[in-house]
Amino acid sequence: MLSNESNTGYNASKYSYLYHYKMEERSLNFLEEIIEKDLAEGKYKSIYTRFPPEPNGYLHIGHAASICLNFGLAIKYQGKCNLRFDDTNPVTEETEYVESIMNDVKWLGFNWDELRYTSDYFEQLYAYAVQLIRQGDAYVDDSTAEQMAATKGDINKPGTDSAWRSRSIDENLALFEEMRAGKYPDGAKVLRAKVDMAHPNLLMRDPIIYRIKHAHHHRTGDAWCIYPMYDFAHGQSDSIEQITHSICTLEFIHHRPLYDWFIQKLGIFPSHQYEFARRNLTYTVMSKRKLLQLVNEKHVAGWDDPRMPTISGLRRRGYTPESIRNFADTIGIAKRDNITDVSLLEFCIRENLNKVANRVMAVLDPVKLVITNYPEGQTEEFDAENNPEDEQGGSRKVPFSREIWIEREDFQEQATKKFFRLAPGLMVRLKYAYIVRCDDFKKDEQGVVTEIYCSYLPESKSGNDTSGLKVKGTIHWVSVPHAQTAEVRLYDRLFRVENPANEDGDFKDYINPDSLQVVANAYIEPALTQAQPGDRFQFLRKGYFCADKDSTPGHLVFNRTVGLKDSWAKEAKK
Ligand code: ATP
Ligand code: MG
């Protein structure tokens, strides 16, 4: 199994190894083993899974792992997978979230067999509760929350029975009906399962299964003022949908006995719960509550801010569905909680974009280079291959002229050791074009270099180079008269520390103040003016970029998805 239990010291070649290992011959994970055994033994004819988000926020990369797992298993074993909105909490749920979740699941490439809402089962769940009351397995309790906490006991001490535990079935039925009818205010009564107040598992000590909440529900409106608790909704919903393998995260492991208890008492379809470890990522936070704070307090521009670990944020940042699916497959599933290095996610997107993104030239920190021996007013066009990794990628024309923009960092007044780009006396190749030699440069009063003067070698034209010269550096450029401008947003990690949720104090104290740097006026080659929001490119030598949703033909905006190399790995080694 390919889990990422230890997550330090990975490098790209190791990821690559993992990736190919996984694709070709990875062994079964523990869920696949269970499923294959269940199918072999004829326990089920086919499997049925579900992805059950609560619509109280946008989905994040952890959810993506769960989506890939649930839908992936259904695909692998030719079973089915539902999308089910677990909408039993009327206060935090919104239709906006429902829509974003459906959109994200589809974008990741999955189709649900059925779209379900737990709220569709409210009537059925109510009937199940009545059944339990009739069987003597549930009772209405008038205790306050404090009283209930006080009689709960603890791990070492058994709880004590509530004074209302011995109510008659008839009385319970009448009271529960009145609860439904709206006769009581919030918190006045609850319905509890009559399990065992001395049970070693505290969740089994007469858990609450219904509470009164006079709140408007995003789908059922004001039809209900009592709502089932998670434990009384989830397993039963699984059962109603005939889910065979109900996969959830580890924090629910102690809920499993209760899950089974309800199914057994109700005599309904025997769904089974299995747990796997939550997926976490370094340099970010993953809980929806924390992400909501970042949005509400405007630390980010919204749920889809490209720095967010949300699926919509990653999409806007330029991530592809394929890269996220590969990431989820590569980390696999684990039984122990762990945190995955974000550089693995970055590796997955680089690997994907390297194959599909067209190469283009953009200069982010420009300085002008003048080719003094190139005729004024002359223009020529070079054929530039769009993507050397893609034979069908085609080519484009790149205009060239006497004046070009290059990156300021590609020039040094005096070359330091191992600097193979431009400095007086040094030669470099201009990508797709000629070799140039630096002769001179000009500075302004502040000492800032304003122009670089070079001469070119006409016989060194790319593809037809007869100069016999070998130069060590190749740089990108954009012709001055042909250049278009664009805004470029350079994103970095949102947090300065690996696990902000684990640090002392408020996680927001660890926000990286430099997580967004805006280049207001980058120069781009003319081909890029056609870019539509969502289009992805490799800016040669600069990284992978994606046209933002804010981009218009008059004002192009690009997001940096990821650099070409893992710059943080280098940092760490220094
Ligand atoms: P959060 O804690 O981020 O609010 P949640 O568990 O409340 O998440 P749900 O909407 O209940 O979010 O989750 C839907 C499904 O996604 C559940 O099955 C849950 O176990 C799974 N899931 C949520 N977060 C992760 C994660 N980090 N890694 C793997 N699966 C996750
Ligand atoms: Mg939840």
TrEMBL record:
Tell me, in one coarse class, where this protein mainly resides.
cytoplasm
Keywords assigned:
Aminoacyl-tRNA synthetase, ATP-binding, Cytoplasm, Ligase, Nucleotide-binding, Protein biosynthesis
Q: Please tell me where ATP binds in this chain.
A: 54-56, 249, 286-288
The terms describing its cellular component in GO are: cytosol
Can you give the residue ranges of the tRNA synthetases class I (E and Q) anti-codon binding domain? Answer: 474-548
Could you say which EC number(s) this protein's record lists?
6.1.1.18
A biological process (GO) of this protein is:
glutamyl-tRNA aminoacylation
Enumerate the spans annotated as Glutamyl/glutaminyl-tRNA synthetase class Ib anti-codon binding domain.
357-456
Cross-referenced Pfam families: tRNA-synt_1c, tRNA-synt_1c_C, tRNA-synt_1c_C2
All copies of the Glutamyl/glutaminyl-tRNA synthetase class Ib catalytic domain together span: 47-354
- Report the residue ranges where the short sequence motif 'HIGH' region is annotated in this entry: 53-63
Q: What class of enzyme is it?
A: ligase
Listed binding positions for L-glutamine are 86, 230
The short motif 'KMSKS' region is annotated over 285-289
| InterPro entries, alphabetized | aa-tRNA-synth_I_CS (IPR001412), Gln-tRNA-synth (IPR004514), Gln/Glu-tRNA_Ligase (IPR050132), Gln_tRNA_ligase_bac (IPR022861), Glu/Gln-tRNA-synth (IPR000924), Glu/Gln-tRNA-synth_Ib_cat-dom (IPR020058), Glu/Gln-tRNA-synth_Ib_codon-bd (IPR020059), Rbsml_bL25/Gln-tRNA_synth_N (IPR020056)
Q: Give one GO term, molecular function aspect.
A: ATP binding
Places the protein is found: Cytoplasm
- Give the reactions, separated by semicolons, that this protein catalyses: tRNA(Gln) + L-glutamine + ATP = L-glutaminyl-tRNA(Gln) + AMP + diphosphate
Family to which this protein belongs = Belongs to the class-I aminoacyl-tRNA synthetase family.
**Assembly and partners?**
Monomer.
Q: Report what the protein is called.
A: Glutamine--tRNA ligase
Q: Which lineage do the record's taxonomy fields give for this organism?
A: Bacteria, Pseudomonadati, Bacteroidota, Chitinophagia, Chitinophagales
